């Protein structure tokens, strides 16, 4: 699956609150872009890809706020391309939590509700955990894994509508800190998945692109992708890119969806 083009102007913008750089909250707009790919599985009209949804949508009725991802699952239904949501897959590349008031930068917490919101409405939801994602207790996590249509791609491959997807959770770092794993372990997992003839590789921490500081990422992950005999489309987030798509030296494509959503259609 190759990305042919991405519409420069968003087809939808979802308003949310996130933490200001110093104190308080700011109102922001999450852009949703349409993109064209060369092919999709026969059973799908579209695939939604997104990550780093670290914000909240406040309640208008005095109730609790929604995590941005929970609200996005509903807001996306306004797009004509998603008129039949049971023919739409969803890929989540991690970091889907925000403090309830949206006023804490880098907060970590339970993102089960985001996964469940997408699973309830769409054909399936697959993806990985970011370094700020938690899934409640072990019992809660087992329950989520048992939900129909939920596919956590932590060091494994799942085939969904004929599409081979694999993924690696978390980011590289000191494993004594939450949300991190040893570099050698992380990179070995990526390498093993690349040998599995994937169509899509899902990471939270992704490779560097080709635009220097404007497409920051991990050079070791990039090196693995450039050596892959059949590189998949890599979906990632973690570090924001102004231009979301990069093409590596061997033609491998990387789509960074940090703080955005992209709807892949044919």
Indicate the topology.
Blueprint: E1 3-6, E2 12-19, E3 25-37, E4 46-51, E5 56-57, E6 66-67, H1 68-75, E7 88-92, E8 109-110, H2 112-121, E9 124-127, E10 133-134, H3 138-145, E11 150-152, E12 156-160, E13 163-168, E14 171-172, E15 180-181, H4 183-194, E16 200-205, H5 219-227, E17 233-237, E18 245-247, E19 253-256, E20 260-265
Helix pairs in contact: 1-2, 4-5
Which key features would you list for this structure?
266 residues, alpha/beta, Purple Acid Phosphatase, chain A, domain 2, eight-stranded mixed sheet, six-stranded mixed sheet, 5 helices, 20 strands, 18% helix, globular
> How many DSSP helices?
5
Mean pLDDT: 95
**CATH fold annotation:** Purple Acid Phosphatase, chain A, domain 2
Name of the CATH class: Alpha Beta
Count up the domains.
Answer: 1
The percentage helix is 10-25%
- Please report which band the strand proportion falls in: under 5%, 5-15%, 15-25%, 25-35%, 35-45% or over 45%: 25-35%
The rough form would be described as: globular
Q: What are the low-pLDDT stretches, counting only 5+ consecutive residues below 50?
A: none
Largest sheet: 8 strands, mixed
* Strand/helix succession: EEEEEEHEEHEEHEEEEEHEHEEEE
- Looking at the overall shape, the CATH architecture is 4-Layer Sandwich
C-alpha-based Rg, rounded = 17 Å
Please count the beta strands (DSSP E, at least 2 residues each): 20
Ends: how far apart?
Answer: 10 Å
* CATH H-level homologous superfamily name: Metallo-dependent phosphatases
> Would you tell me the structural class of the helices and strands?
alpha/beta
């Amino acid at each position: 699956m190759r990305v042919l083009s991405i519409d420069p102007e968003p087809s939808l913008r979802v308003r949310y609150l996130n933490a200001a750089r110093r104190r308080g909250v700011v109102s922001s707009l999450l852009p949703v872009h349409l993109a064209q790919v060369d092919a999709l599985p026969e059973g799908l009209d579209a695939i939604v890809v997104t990550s780093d949804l670290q914000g909240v949508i406040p309640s208008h009725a005095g109730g609790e706020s929604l995590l941005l991802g929970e609200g996005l699952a509903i807001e996306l239904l306004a797009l004509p391309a998603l008129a039949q949501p049971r023919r739409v897959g969803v890929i989540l590349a991690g970091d889907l939590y925000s403090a309830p008031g949206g006023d804490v930068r880098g907060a970590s917490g339970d993102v089960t509700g985001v996964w469940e919101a997408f699973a309830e409405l769409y054909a399936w939801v697959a993806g990985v955990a970011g370094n700020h994602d938690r899934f409640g207790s072990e019992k809660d996590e087992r329950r989520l894994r048992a939900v129909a249509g939920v596919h956590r791609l932590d060091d494994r491959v799942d085939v969904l509508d004929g599409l081979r997807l694999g993924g690696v959770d978390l980011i590289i770092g000191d494993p004594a800190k939450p949300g991190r794993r040893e570099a050698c372990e992380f990179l070995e997992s990526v390498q093993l998945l690349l040998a599995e003839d994937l169509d899509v590789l899902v990471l939270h921490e992704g490779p560097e692109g080709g635009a220097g500081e404007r497409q920051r990422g991990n050079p070791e992950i990039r090196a693995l992708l450039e050596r892959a005999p059949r590189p998949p489309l890599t979906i990632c987030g973690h570090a924001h890119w102004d231009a979301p798509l990069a093409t590596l030296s061997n033609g491998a494509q990387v789509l960074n969806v940090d703080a955005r959503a992209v709807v892949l259609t044919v």
